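Escalated from tier 1: 2-acetamido-2-deoxy-beta-D-glucopyranose holo job.
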Amino acid sequence: MGIRVFSFLVALLFLASPIIQVVRCQSEADVDATAVVEGDDLGIVGDETQVLGDGTFSPAPGVDTICVFPKNAAKLVPAGEVTEILVGMHNEGESTLNVIAMHGSLHLPFDHHMFVQNLTTQEFFNASVPVSAQATFPYKFAVNKFLQPGSFDLVGTIVYEIDQQPYQSVFYNGTIEVVEAGGFLSIESVFLVTLGVALLGLFGLWAYGQIQQFSKKTKRATKVEVGTRATDANMDEWLQGTAYAHSLSNKPKKKK
Ligand SMILES: *[C@@H]1O[C@H](CO)[C@@H](O)[C@H](O)[C@H]1NC(C)=O
Ligand SMILES: *[C@@H]1O[C@H](CO)[C@@H](O)[C@H](O)[C@H]1NC(C)=O
Ligand SMILES: *[C@@H]1O[C@H](CO)[C@@H](O)[C@H](O)[C@H]1NC(C)=O
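Tier 2 regenerated the structure:
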């Protein structure tokens, strides 16, 4: 009985530990999210010099941009790893354009005023797109490896000049899915390992309990057997000399 109660308690502890862990992870996530939003110096990966100045420019007429996530339809961005997207430019304007730089920023999906991270500013030298031409430029960025997985909004901007006039176009303004890089310590793996250990522990306890019960049963069973044998013997004694005993002892003979 004591062992049962003990094993039940241990099992409860094992079962509860992943739940406790998950709850803790969630509160950590909340803390992290607010920290990322508030901390100005937390999220800057490769935030290079401000080549762009403070001004925001308008898009040039006749310039179209397109953004492609190569082999990545789900727009998954592993935290801390470099992701490359391709930005296509189509110049239907009147003169050659020169690409100056691309930069991006990460925002909370529900509020674009919430800055999460300034992404790499990528400068270009000698990257021109003649009139009626198309060109594709890669943009490489990495989101902070401490960013909690989830949906974020990426705003990507390309800055260029035409006839010495600066312009900019937003080439991407949409959701990306930040996922954990293939690290060995993801929350899921911690959870699964804990669950596995808990199940193993439970199985061990169960097996231990079974063995204990089995040995008890066998002890009892042998006792009972002895008992029945005794009563059998008594019965035999009782029946000795009666017709029943005769028929019993005669049976083997008949079979022969
Ligand atoms: C990102 O850069 C802009 C200027 O380009 C700055 O105003 C803003 O505070 C920066 N945000 C973060 C989170 O560093
Ligand atoms: C820039 O482009 C011009 C012609 O478009 C070329 O002659 C020159 O070598 C290029 N410079 C660099 C640094 O790529
Ligand atoms: C991106 O889209 C959101 C809404 O979808 C909008 O509020 C925001 O101003 C856009 N950002 C830019 C830079 O166009």
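The CA atoms of residues 116 and 131 lie 37 Å apart.
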